[in-house]
Amino acid sequence: MKIICIGRNYADHIRELDGGPLPAEPVFFLKPDTALLRNNAPFYVPTFSNEVHYETELVVRINRVGKAVSEKYARRYYDEVGLGIDFTARDLQRHAVANGLPWENSKGFDGSAAVSPVFLKLSDLGTDIQRLRFEMSLNGEVKQSGDTAQMIFGVVKLISYVSRFMMLRIGDLLFTGTPAGVGPVKPGDHLQASLLGQTLLDFDIK
Ligand code: MG
Q1: Which of 55, 60, 194, 199 is the most exposed place for a label (fewest CB within 10 A)?
Q2: Residue 91, by phi and psi: left (phi above 0), alpha (psi -120 to 50) or beta?
Q3: How far, in Å, CA of 71 to CA of 74, rounded?
């Protein structure tokens, strides 16, 4: 399986990140399967970074194989959503971007893709995927509040776009981008995130 991550998909996050222009097309990158952090296991801050940030994101699980999926049919490719943290070594990422280098070391390191143990069926939620509110708190203090209605590119568009370049497979995970409020984690922190009020992520930073 692969982990597909969308960048720059919420205008308020772009403003806080670098103030750059809104993307004309989706931006995506991959994390390896070794980046997965499952079952609310603790996240260990890696020693190679002095600035690891959380990015809380809605995660869509792909449930069928598809290539060059049209937007019209993209809705058939998922029926469950969860939450994830796209952990980012911001200092390494900044260095990579400034030097025009790939940024895998800042985005794809072990444990950098925390995924909720539970995914919720959209049919049970009874609401559209572009009408989902989620929230993340660190040590009990709310740091990020997102609403998928604020995405620049909705999930249907993301699936159609990414599948033009690479085949989607069952079990692939699509991280759909983060809203504003990203910030650092440190050992001793406790991270929780909820989707429509239901806590899905709940783990320690070590
Ligand atoms: Mg992200």
Answers
A1: 199
A2: alpha
A3: 5
Give the CA count within 13 Å in the CB-facing half-sphere of 123: 4
State which H helix or E strand residue 142 sits in.
strand 141-147
Which contiguous run of DSSP H or E holds residue 96? helix 90-98
DSSP 183: E
How far does the centroid of ligand 1 lie from the alpha carbon of residue 5, in Å? 6
Residues written for the chain: 206
Confidence (pTM): 0.97
Question: For residue 90, what is the enclosing H or E element?
Answer: helix 90-98
Q: Ligand 1 centroid to 178 CA: how many Å?
A: 5
Interatomic CA distance for residues 204 and 145, integer angstroms: 20
Three-state DSSP class for 189? coil
Tokens of 103: 């940024």
Which residues line ion ligand 1, judged by CB < 5 Å? 55, 86, 178
**DSSP-derived secondary structure letter, 54:** E
Strand partners for 58? 83
